[in-house]
Amino acid sequence: MNAHPEILRLLAFLAGLIIFAALNAAYLVWLERKVCGHIQRRIGPKEVGPFGLLQPLADGIKLMTKQVLVPPQVDPVLFRLAPALVLIPAIMSFVVIPFSANLVAREINIGLLLVFAFASVNVLGLLLGGWGSANKYAVISAARCVSQNVAYEIPMLITVITMVMITGTMNLNEIVLQQPDISQWYVFRFTASPLMPVAFLVFFICSLAETNRAPFDLGEAESELIAGFHTEYSGMGFGLFFMGEYANIVIGASLATVLFLGGWQSPVSFIPGGWWWFLAKVYFLIFTIMWIRWTYPRTTLWGLLNLSWKVLIPISLLNLLVTGGMLKLMPLIFGAG
Amino acid sequence: MIDLALSQNKEIFVLNLGPQHPATHGVLRVKLLMDGEYIVSAEPVLGYIHRMHEKMGENRTWAQFMPNTGRLDYLGALSYNHGYARVVERAAGIEVPERAEYLRVITVELNRIASHLLWFGAFVLDLGGFTPLLYAFDDREMILDLLESVTGARLTFCYFRFGGVYNDIDDNFVPGTRAFIKRLRKRMPEYHNLVTKNIIIIKRLRDVGPISAGMCRRYGATGPVARGSGINYDVRKNEPYSVYPEFDFDIPVYEDGDSMARYMVRMDEIEQSMRIVEQALDRLPDGPVMAEKVPKIIKPKPGDYYSVVEAARGTFGVRVVSDGTNTPYRLKLRSPTFSNLSLYGEAARGMLLADALALMGSLDLVIPEIDR
Amino acid sequence: MENLIAQFEAIPALAVKEADYPVRGYHLEVTVAPEAVVAAAEVMDVAGYTLEAITGIDWLGEEARRREAGVKARNAAAVKAAKEAEEEPPEPETADLSGITEEMEVVYDYTHYDHLFRVMVRCRVARDNPGLPSIHQVFAGADWHEKETHDFFGIVFSGNPDLVPFILPEDADYHPLLKDFST
Amino acid sequence: MGTYFKDLFGGTWSLIVGLAITIKYFFYPVVTVQYPRATLKMPPRFRGHIDLVADPGTGAPKCVVCGMCQRGCPSGCITLSGEKPEGAKKKILTSYQLDFTHCSLCGLCVESCNFGAIDFSKEYNLAGPSREAYVFDLLTRLKERTTNVDNDA
């Protein structure tokens, strides 16, 4: 059975990506607890294995062996479907992320569109999880998640449209190829639009809000809604939610790296590019996400919506206009050259 | 604040906040009638940690009730020792020597700083910021070590006796306290930069949970809650007791009565308490820490006596009715948070859930002190 | 301060007495009949006072103790007088404990935010069915204090919105602070 | 409009200042004590449960069975008994039991004892399987302490 080589390659990549997502979910939790520890001048996990490195393994085994409790008055289908609906889109959007020149599962010319299509399914999972678990706190948190994601999808997409206008393509690998070294990074590409760093900041804030992280973690606000949409989940149900959340964080960070920080290209020409540059940038962004989480308190729902509708959307629209104008006028001013 | 009269929304549902809930810092349950995320009515339900201290007072001798006062508000327990000691000294006519009064003021003010630091950490934790709690606990740990080296306890103190204090301070208490004050003076600007000036905190606290001076007076709110609404009432100034008149410190009062005002009152009070402790350390007199002829069995003259002290959360009053025997006939404990919380029903109506929790955090509740 | 005393006498209060603050802890002691409690609260409200606490006291057996003390004092005096006159001491009388109506007391503590003047309003109620009007329209904070006093003593504050067990468990029908309460 | 921009720029600046503070502490040394590995020394006045004090000369407890501590304790944790052998003029202690589940460590017993016969121990990590494990017999504890003090002295 000489199956088509492409399918074999795809299956291998899929297995690799699932392992990558699982490992990421485990060791980002470890990194988060270490970063939180040291910011608060304590150590974080250190008992299980050297520097606590086996702690995620122990957590994983614990989550898997715990009984998945399904409360009686819960909606059976939605309750079981929700965690999967959060995790699967996250893993699927890994398919188009270029880890290095040829290390990409499937190079599709509309890769960016695919990632955002899956990103909107993620909030559906949260809503079904919150609604399905028939718990008042979960219902409130589900309502919050929906309004939060809708409010932050718009500025993110406007910024992405600006980027597509500049790069001219939606194929992530090509976008990376257009940024060979640090001076060419889109975050410093002032020729395209003077507001580029601001666009990066808007994109970063929106990816925080999309994944319910840091100052915008209204979805699972511990001190108000106990654990929000995953209050009723235990065992692997909770584990899947957790993996979904961390997978989404990695996607948000890797998108920001691909679009703005030159993906797997190395910032300086004499060191060759490769997947290690990509992972270094992604993990630096993830460190910043964690650093922000342990510094700021939480906003309220209306504060969060105000920030999006009154601040981020106007800025991203302004950026869109400025970029459009620059693209149109630049060739005229500097002649057809 | 939606106009509740109009919203005859059929889906008003009851949400139980507590008794096991991260934001209630104890076993308080608030029955919320919610319309979506707006609160139609909030009704605190008490009694989950009620131990009937007042009945215990009636079957113990006067001295045996002192450990109970430490269990009322264990974050500022020394003020409660002070309140009970003062009322019995007033009833039995016992004089307290100068050095003991100074030690009392120093330890009570240190305890007030520790209580405000813990409140600061827990309040920002309610708003979602985790790290300031750990920094505040790091500072508070120094106070607890200092108080432990003197009184032997860290939280539920039983240090005061009628006519003085249990034992004198050891020699590294004074340098230790001075070092602590120097360190906290360096840390306070950092707390203000990290939290007070943070735009997210400002947006969460400004104009949230407004409490007017009239509402404070009608509900009998005292302490930082009243001082946050423009009422200049602090027992240490309005009804001077112990050696407080000898120190010069001022009472922070903020006018606008929202959560930010109550937050700022407590942050400034930390600074004022440090000033008191410094002046008290400079003028600490020598001499005995216990009055000489304090009778072993105390039998105050019959009649009823009342005295108040400024605890970390407000006016702690003790009314004692004595019938001349060695056990109190009636012992009434007036707890400040009981009255501060009684205005929550009216203050939280129509607010969002997140703001209602910010308001509850700004009231600085300690539930065992409410239930007694 | 003078017009306060005048206003209290106008209610009419049963007794208005100035107390010695350093010893007692309050300045003015006003005794009122149960019906006049709301009027006293309004006097305080108009004067800008705030209600600090409501205390219940159960004076079970107080009258009996007073009579016995009186009898004992008279016996002692009689015995002493007899010893001086070398006569044989008269037969000691016994206190007649009939016709005592047991009483309970409710004490309202008022204080003022600006100047140091504490007023204590006392009100005696019968012990078998203790009842007096609620002052929660005047001082909203009194609502909780009254519910607590009702929990501990069984004093019924007529007009209080819902006089159900507040600090005690919902199904509590006992009143722990009564002198004859025993578990 | 003014407050809009003031909030925007002032707010962003306050966020950056907040980040700077936490990253500074990220590189500061750790302040926590790794409890099971390293333990703190308790200050001299630390109040563990009470223990009998041995008379340095004879090694017997200083207690004269006057019962002051038993009466002084608000929660009635102490029960002690002693008997007077014919010849001697002083009572000797036969049993001294402390029910540590009720003790509130208030120190009224230590204070009321004018013979200095009981004092606070420095023990704080008392783990026990059941409530009864916390009813200490201080006399036997004293004997154990004095015996192993003798053999390892």
Descriptive tags:
heterotetramer, B: 372 residues, 3-stranded antiparallel sheet, 15 helices, 13% strand, globular, D: 153 residues, alpha+beta, Alpha-Beta Plaits, 2 domains, two-stranded antiparallel ribbon, 4 helices
For this structure, the quaternary state is heterotetramer
Q: Which spans of chain B of ≥5 residues are poorly predicted at pLDDT below 50?
A: none
Per CATH, the architecture of chain B is Orthogonal Bundle
Number of helices of chain B: 15
Query: Which structural class do you get from the secondary structure elements of chain B?
Result: alpha+beta
Order of helices and strands of chain B: EEEHHHHHEEHHHHHHEEEHHHH
Helix tally of chain C equals 5
CATH fold-level label of chain B: Cytochrome-c3 Hydrogenase, chain B
Largest interface: B-C, 45 and 36 residues
CATH class of chain B: Mainly Alpha
Going across the major beta sheet of chain C, what is the strand order? 1-2-5-4-3
How many strands appear in the DSSP assignment of chain C? Answer: 7
Q: How many structurally independent domains of chain B? A: 1
Strand content of chain B: 5-15%
β-strand number of chain B: 8
In this structure, how is the largest beta sheet of chain B organized? 3 strands, antiparallel
In terms of per-residue confidence, which ranges of chain C show pLDDT below 50 for 5 or more consecutive residues? Answer: none
How would a textbook summarize the main sheet of chain C?
5 strands, mixed
Structural overview:
The complex is a heterotetramer of chains A (337), B (372), C (183) and D (153). By secondary structure, chain A is mainly α. Chain A has 11 helices and no strands. With 183 residues, chain C is an alpha/beta fold. Chain C has a 5-stranded mixed beta sheet. Chain D is α+β, with helices and mostly antiparallel strands. Chain D has a 3-stranded antiparallel beta sheet with strand order 2-3-5. A two-stranded antiparallel sheet of chain D has the order 1-4. The radius of gyration of chain D is 27 Å and the shape is elongated. The model of chain D has no long low-confidence stretch (mean pLDDT 86). Chains in contact: A-B, A-D, B-C, B-D. At the B-C interface, helix 1, helix 8, strand 6, strand 7 and strand 8 of B face helix 2, strand 3, strand 4 and helix 5 of C.
